[in-house]
Amino acid sequence: MTSPDASPDIPPESMTPPASSSDPRDVDLSGIRGYLFDLDGVLTPTAVVHMHAWSRLFTPYLEEHGAAPYTDADYFAHIDGKPRYDGVRSLLASRGIVVPEGEVTDAPSADTVHGLGNRKNDAFNATLAEEGVEAYPASVAFLDAVQASGCHVAVVSSSKNAPAVLEAAGLADRFEVVVDGAVAAREGLPGKPQPDTFERAAELLGLPTTVCAVVEDAESGVKAGAAGEFGIVIGVDRGVGRHTLAELGADVIVDELDELIPAVERAAATASTGSATEAAFPSTIREEPV
Ligand SMILES: [Mg+2]
Fold first, then answer.
1. Catalytic residues
2. Are 80 and 88 in contact (CB under 8 A)?
3. pTM, rounded to two decimals
4. Ligand 1 center to 279 CA (angstroms)
5. Could you report the per-residue pLDDT of 55-101, keeping only the tens digit for each?
């Protein structure tokens, strides 16, 4: 006879979900009108290109300075997700190396924070040219689905190379708005983990933040999403870990974005019936003080 407590269909991990995140299959995206995508690690595996470029910069540099050797752990601890010059400052601080700030216009050969940042940029472009970059197929499938559903899309990246990366990945013509490190510098917007660059992208899409989703893989980016009034923060676990992403404020966490396609299609079907249209555009649209 069957034993009463046999329940082989219920996966054990469903017993202890993180309190603050939900199952990708159950997530409600019906109110979402825009998706604000981080680039590196969300749309493209550019982290690898960046990691190689930072290593090209700091391996010889730390050697010349007699400091502890540069490792991939340094990338995750001091650099990942931050604006470039902040990454330089953090890494140098970790080795007790002090150099002048310099100017954004410093030559890549200058031994300043800005010179080193510019040297890293040259290393990045050289690495991108040599290795190329291919978008994550599951992310492109998700992008296809959200655009087919009529949602607007933007890229929000700390990198000043976002246009070059989008071009290399064949995604340059897919995004209405790109708020990257160059835009942030020009407009004086603080980078992630502050929410300002995501808020600016929503504004440029013509949407209140409350109907926008933030899609992020880095700690600093999820923090930025959680710090704003966004509709949902989607965490993509590329190595930070589900627990950490949930703790930092991700509402739902996936390994690959195509896990959310059923939710996007369900939201589109709900919206097309018209019944949910009023609910999707509530009167809580946030008015920014002028
Ligand atoms: Mg990222």
1. 38, 40
2. no
3. 0.75
4. 32
5. 999 999 999 999 999 998 999 889 987 889 999 999 999 999 999 99
